[in-house]
Amino acid sequence: MVTMWWLFVAPLSVSGSLTVDMLPPRVTDVEYAVRGEIVIRAGEIEKELENPNHGYPFDEIIRCNIGNPQAVGQSPVTFHRQVLSLVTLPEMIKGSSFEKDVVERATKFSNATKFGAYAHSKGVELFRHMVCDFIERRDGPNLGKVDAESIFLTDGASAGVKMSLGMLIKDMDDGVLIPIPQYPLYSAAITSLSGTAAGYYLDEAGGWSVPMPAIEAAIRKFRKDRPNGRLKALVMINPGNPTGNLLSRAQMQEMVKLCERESLVLLADEVYQENVWSATKKWESFRKVALEMKSPVEVVSFHSISKGYSGECGLRGGYMQFHNSDSKVIDQVYKMASITLCSNTLGQAMIASIVNPPRAGEPSFPTFEIEKTKVLASLGRKAKFLVDRLNQIEGVSCQPIEGAMYAFPSVILPPGAIKAAEAAGKVPDTFYCLAMLEATGIVVVPGSGFFQKEGTWHYRITILPAEEKLPKVLDRYEAFHKAFIAKYSKTEL
Known about the structure:
Strand content: 5-15%
Shape: globular
Number of domains: 2
Largest sheet: 7 strands, mixed
């Protein structure tokens, strides 16, 4: 009889297994509030709502925490989805009942690449040229051609942001100037790369404008804190997230000059360029402004299919474009992009298609124009309605939403609420937002997740809920807010 000795071997020790305390600070110190504690609790409540006797004073969760348009009811644009459907099943192209321009584009795309195969690490050449065409049309024909080799197609703008930061940051002595309030992608990515985020405060009373003295103060503080430090880049989010501000041309010119003086790369997050609601300002790209100033400043700009009027967040498509960058640096970026082989090919197709929509005279144009106009008009109305309504609530103050998809209102919390938050081990605005969720089902993100001036409390709320639902959402919120303030304003607290 043969003894099966391997059945009696003791299990291997797990003492060397990966545990949380073994992880480096660049991992454990990362925070990403947009999908943090409140979102986790919202998911738990959503499951509880499946029980008819759930006990909550609402029957649905209203997700106002993230710019995810299709998750809250926005429909995809027909033309681009029809193109996508054909390239994923190319045998359907021949004999398709779709409009002629849809079939032509799908044929062109399918001839350019096999969508189930790896593509060039910068992205399919045809798609990169289509992005170049878009940038040239957008910024004007007199500013020169865009080199397709300066374009990288990415899995959403976030991937491009992280890749560019990875090229800039070596260690904690490398600093990146970011706006405060900031989008958590930047602080999280900088932390994960062991760099230093140098925050400059936007001026809330001035409509979240970008004051040059605030940036200069952030530069001085960084140099004082890190005598051997190297400031590498300035991040500009335009239109702003979470603040909804829109930069004036004069402000943009100041930023370009600052980058020249300080030898900074300008990282231009321009994913909301189609979401402009201001009646007095127009959006321009930093590439355009830099070119018209004849500036040598390096600009890395980012765009995405996730925002605008398309809202294709889940398909993960975007681009980054390098302007005035050393070709040898771009070669190194290409090398790093090659590590992951390529971004997903369907996202590449969608960014190329979305920035080159149907034009007047083409068969799909009438439907496309109706869909685009409907989405943008509704978002514009909701932006104004949300601000007006929030400003009618005592103790809540909200600056105009000039662009993007968010408001960032401030809330005056009574001392009793701050004391109760401390007792619960919570930051006061997190305490407030959790109470809001439990009472209303509305999911927002505490301002502390975006950083904010000490002693102020905010939250970020999207303008994305369906237009017919938004008044009821705000009715529910107002009732909660009044009850919350009344409860924690009692003298015994």
